[in-house]
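[Help] Beginner question about ligand-bound structures

Sorry if this is basic. My supervisor gave me a protein sequence and a SMILES string for zinc ion and asked me to "get the holo structure". I don't really know what that means in practice or what format the answer should be in. Inputs are pasted below exactly as I got them.
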Amino acid sequence: MNQPLFTSKSLRTMQNRTLFTVLFIFSLFVTTVIQAQSPVNPISSNSTTEQLNFEACGEISIHILDQSLTSTNSIDIANWEDAFSLEDIEPNFFDLDNKRFYIQLESSSNLGSFINVLLETLDENGNVVDQQTDVKLKKISGGFSTKKYRSTARIVVVDNDVIDDNFSDYTGSDQDIDVYDGDDDIGTNDDNKNDPTIYGILGQRIRVTYFSNGRNEPVTSELIDICEPSNIKRVRLNLINMRNNAGTGTYLQASDILAEIDKMQKAWGQCCIRFVNKDGNHFTEADVVSTTQPAALSLDNGLHMLNQVPNLSTIALSQQEQTHLQLKDNDPSTVDMFFVNKYVLIDNESDTTPTDTNVAATAFIDWLAPSSHNPNITAAQVRTIIITTNARYFTYAHEIGHILTDRAHFVAPTELGGDLDYNGSAEGHSDFPVRANLMRYPPTSAMNGVKESKRLLPFQCFYARNETDLPY
Ligand SMILES: [Zn+2]
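Answer (accepted):
No worries, everyone starts somewhere. Holo just means with the ligand present. The predicted complex, written as structure tokens, is below.
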């Protein structure tokens, strides 16, 4: 269900604001004078008249407050870092998230004990992609001062439908955490009035509107960004879709690759990171370049991977991998993503009977390149991802996570010890369930769900934004 921005009404509201402000200042002045003259009983007959005018012309403004109750022009996507208790979801997980927000309406006149506002997410064209009607705001201050009305805590989540965004009450107790119907339909009817989550992705905006006369007359609205625009890190991708041996087609369709890139966008929106094409723009199918194989490859049979202990300091590339990586664009400001059929294991280069594997993908991270770290891999070969047709739901997002964080996997404290593996204990997240982390040791989850491998903790976002010199 789409509906356009009510631009003409918004404009009229803006024009009225100037008038409101003048009346508001005048009313305040009158109120102050009356209070000064009649400290015992400020409600004189004159003041009643003024108060009535004041009621009729009162200034109303809406603010989005961040977790510290400070007014903000942008809100980030939630990390759910304190949402889990062992494997369960805390009933008040949205109250615990550092990226929670509150809606506050300030009015010079009394609007009662509670008011309702409309909360929406708008896409880049102004179409509504999620909507909560009648979000309740409770009066938290009154008297002669400005009346303030505030909502309970809310968070922005990146999946709609039944995933993340289908809490019908404050407890979240009805969330069906394990079921996903596979349909990311843009539904606006999954949100109960008190749903603490609203769907939204990077590039979209959150709008709150207060109406008079039921929902007929928008009085004022506030529109804020999801992620502060100047804080969005844009990572450029070079997408290389390998053709089959006969050169007649590719193993993956460009449209399927772009659908997976969309999942990457959702996952890394948690860190205000966005993926763009080589020119810095939105992806189209033209950005998925199909490329003929070098003669030394035979991708129909699988790309060779050396059978070796996966030690990052000694791991070596097969001759086929080395040949393959010569197709990189030699631009260190891009990450190259190759799409191939599958990986097969060889014991050594003269092995003529490769073994099929179910390896989903590999990523060659910056850390490998200095010879002091690994003498077998060069700077020209890193910042590379090879994706196979075994990729699962979160594989693309997981692999780019290796490149961005320049690290291996998020593991339980008891499992720490692998090369470049890490956990959340030093960051105060030792109890975060590994299962729910995007960078957990593979395999990542086969399906989407609230507790599946999709979360990124704030310190992982910090790594991803700062550990490489990939340009903004
Ligand atoms: Zn991995």
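A couple of things worth pointing out: Residues 1-57, 168-190 have pLDDT under 50 and may be disordered. The longest strand covers residues 128-141. Feel free to follow up in the thread.
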